[in-house]
Amino acid sequence: MADAPLSRWERGGEKNLGYGRRFAELVSSGADVDGEARLADTLVARRARILDAGSGMGRVAAYLHDRGHRVVAAEPDLSLVEQSRRTYPQVEVLPQDILGLTDEVLSAAGGPAEFDLVVCVGNVIAFVAEGTEVAVLIRLRQLLAPGGRILVGFHLQGGPETARRMTLDQFASEVGEAGLVVEHRFGGYDLRPVDDQYAVWLLCADPDPAR
Ligand SMILES: C[S@@+](CC[C@H](N)C(=O)[O-])C[C@H]1O[C@@H](n2cnc3c(N)ncnc32)[C@H](O)[C@@H]1O
């Protein structure tokens, strides 16, 4: 079998080390790092099943876990898995890429295998491996429970240099190809209007997907 393609995050190498360091500093200074998670929390009932796909150093998963949700955090970068476990030992992290989140892996982990909400924020969708963009969205759709939704957030301008630059039209076309429908679009996690800087989209499954 051919090796899996490297994600843009892996290709970025040392250029991406700043993320973990910056959030470690923000957390220890008491800064607010919970904007994405506060919005996620409003989107679900109590004790919801939530997947944090590309959970990084764990800030979003930890906030949601601490509010009583059943959270599965998945993160393929082992140095971030280690940082997450050290910073938020209460959160279990699966050392997995989104495409590695098979039904078998999820059931072996003993947590939920389908989700009321998938959180895929902080440019994760712009860091996946080239050529896997639609496959990743399809896998996230397959992981939704009936009525489940996906919260996605990424920079349109001024984002990390190693991430993919996406236009709204490009992402809309990939979303449609993956059998997903756009429920809402905003310009930030505070629900500001759509702008050309940052995209926050809420997606749900197309009831009649082509794939
Ligand atoms: C800027 S970090 C954001 C982390 C976290 N979501 C946050 O907001 O703090 C981008 C993350 O995308 C992850 N990533 C890239 N490709 C991925 C994939 N195919 N599956 C899961 N995570 C992926 C990287 O490992 C990295 O942790």
Automatic annotation (TrEMBL):
Residues 50-148 form the Methyltransferase domain. The keyword Ribosomal protein does not apply. Pfam families: Methyltransf_25 (PF13649). Keywords: Methyltransferase, Transferase. It is an enzyme of class 2 (transferase). Signal peptide: none annotated. Its EC number is 2.1.-.-. One of its GO terms (molecular function) is methyltransferase activity. InterPro entries: Methyltransf_25 (IPR041698), SAM-dependent_MTases_sf (IPR029063). GO terms for biological process: methylation. This is Class I SAM-dependent methyltransferase. It comes from Nocardioides bizhenqiangii. The lineage of its organism: Bacteria, Bacillati, Actinomycetota, Actinomycetes, Propionibacteriales.
